[in-house]
Amino acid sequence: MDDLSTIPANLDHLIITVPELEAGVAEFERLTGVKAVAGGRHPGRGTANYLIGLTPAGWPEGAHTYLEILGPDPQQEAPADGTLPLDAHLAQGLTLQTWAIHPHAFLAKVAGANTEGIDFGEVRDMSRETAEGELLEWRLTSRSPLPSKGTQPFLIDWGESTHPAEAALPSVELLEFSIESPDAEESRRALDVLGAGDTQVVEGTEHRLHARLRGPGGVLKF
């Protein structure tokens, strides 16, 4: 039975990183039956992405969330140090790397995290051009390497830009989502401060994200 309580209400999107973008998109389609659509490039960052809509179990119809497949952009040179955003250079196959949340009061959550000593990095302004030529601009918290190996979400604020999930994206169902942590209590504290205290956290031997996605062609588990 699907556990409807495992999907955080503030989930913005999940990020799957891949070592080779076209091959990663093809593998995702093979496993789920859903073909991702081109998102756009991140100029000067060495990456590009493809997008799939997410339909989280138990969420109201029309809620905004999506899945991003992120990998090296073959039309850009890689950064000189070989480091890609969101540690995408570390991917081996389809890797559920990290996730983003959109708290209702972005700056207040950032201030609260500072006060509570949560290491989220810094706030950055970001942008990319969509495949249709629309410029998207947003701000997010960013740290490299990722805090807690990607299990701690970054915060994102889309401002006046159109949310990517508002596009007509092919979609898969998000049936389950949880975090494994060797220090579950500390992970829960950080999540609560950041605005994702409703996330399921389980004690484990390593920091790791778990999710179960279902498309017409099959179920993909991380």
TrEMBL record:
InterPro entries: Glyas_Bleomycin-R_OHBP_Dase (IPR029068), Glyoxalase-like_dom (IPR025870). Residues 11-192 form the Glyoxalase-like domain. Pfam families: Glyoxalase_3 (PF13468). Signal peptide: none annotated. It comes from the Bacteria. This is Glyoxalase-like domain-containing protein. It comes from Brevibacterium aurantiacum. The lineage of its organism: Bacteria, Bacillati, Actinomycetota, Actinomycetes, Micrococcales.
